[in-house]
Write a structure and sequence with these properties.
The protein has 16 helices and 13 strands. By secondary structure, it is an alpha/beta fold. The protein has a four-stranded mixed sheet with strand order 3-4-1-5. The chain has a four-stranded mixed sheet with strand order 2-6-8-7. The radius of gyration is 21 Å and the shape is globular. This is Helix-turn-helix domain protein.
């Protein structure tokens, strides 16, 4: 794990902006990352289920998924041309910008990717700027978005709006520096540098260009930025877990909670109304400490528990969001209704 250091000037602080809508191509890339997660985030469980509810949905996603698996693999790099700045204005603008990517840039970025992993033969025309290859990529990403993101847009938009409203309130109360300081882990404001726990060590000098902050629904854990420091500066950061949950229409019973997260994780959440170590948790659940730790990781990433170290012990406790879930006050965002699932 490295650190991204974003260097601000006084001018840059006056040019920090919050995106006014989710970026559809960043969300496309992040959904592919989420589908590769070894531990599936609880807040996305309904999303996972709905994606696989109909074979036609996964069939429509497949061409884009195969392209993304090659072009945006797990690792320290994927090409910037997949997430053009113009996509901040909407999917159509982003795909048009992708189609217009200069040949020299395609060759450079795909050449850089090839240094990390071998590329399939079909990537060669893309690297050469072949218009038909770019059209195929854009069409596949459009279909992937239509199947994996668009049916869930109401949930994405609601979480995005909640995060944006909370950030706007911080700016009104304390200014831009309060906004930067309040982005939360893994982001730290140490004026005049914004430090981000990152996949590599990297410095980004804004040089008066400012910074666009983009909340992302499907981003988890690690914020991302453009690999090329010469491109318009953006920082894509995960929306806090509390914004991915909605007020519950009815009280959640124990059976419903077990169906959502499994009996063991439900038991963990019930047990954590006080500080409990991983070893104590394992004894309560009658599982191994490694299994108890995995359950705690899933719940922590969902924002339902907090974990802290106290000397040699690791202590877990339930968060207010976890308590609200137990009491039936919140629930995960629902999957789309039948009409949305069948949309083409």
């Amino acid at each position: 794990m490295g650190t991204l250091r974003i260097h601000f000037t006084a001018d840059d602080l006056t040019r920090v902006t919050l995106a006014d809508q989710p970026d559809p191509l960043w969300e496309v890339v992040f959904t592919r990352f989420r589908l590769r997660d070894r531990l599936r985030p609880l807040a996305f469980r309904h999303w996972f289920a709905a994606l696989h509810a109909e074979p036609a949905r996964t069939a429509r996603m497949r061409p884009g998924a195969l392209l993304l698996d090659a072009l945006a693999p797990a690792g320290p790099y994927f090409p910037d041309f997949l997430t053009p700045y113009e996509a901040g204005r909407g999917l159509g603008h982003g795909l048009e910008a992708l189609r217009r990517t200069p040949r020299r840039r395609l060759a450079a970025e795909l050449g850089r990717l090839a240094r990390h992993r071998p590329l399939p033969r079909w990537a060669r025309p893309l690297a050469e700027g072949d218009a038909r290859a770019l059209d195929r990529l854009a069409d596949a990403l459009r279909d992937y978005h239509a199947a994996a993101v668009a049916p869930f847009q109401a949930s994405v938009d609601a979480a995005f709006a909640a995060d944006r409203d909370s950030r706007a309130g911080v700016v009104l109360g304390g200014g831009v520096e309060a906004l930067l300081a309040g982005l939360g882990p893994p982001i730290r404001w140490t004026p005049p540098v914004l430090e981000v726990d990152y996949v590599v060590d990297q410095d980004l000098a804004l040089g008066g260009r400012g910074l666009r902050l983009v909340p992302s629904y499907f981003c988890q854990r690690t914020p991302l930025s453009m690999a090329d420091p010469g491109l318009p500066p953006v920082l894509i950061y995960p929306i806090p877990q509390r914004h991915r949950w909605r007020p519950a229409a009815r009280r959640t019973g124990g059976a419903d909670l077990s169906a959502l997260m499994g009996a063991n994780r439900s038991a963990v959440l019930h047990a954590l109304d006080r500080d409990v170590t991983t070893t104590q948790l394992a004894r309560l659940l009658r599982v191994s400490p490694a299994t108890a730790s995995r359950h705690a990781t899933v719940l922590r990433e969902a924002g339902l528990i907090d974990t802290r170290r106290d000397g040699t012990a690791v202590l877990h406790t339930r968060t207010p969001l976890g308590t609200a879930l137990l009491e039936g006050d919140v629930a995960p965002s629902p999957p789309p209704g039948p009409a949305a699932v069948r949309r083409r």
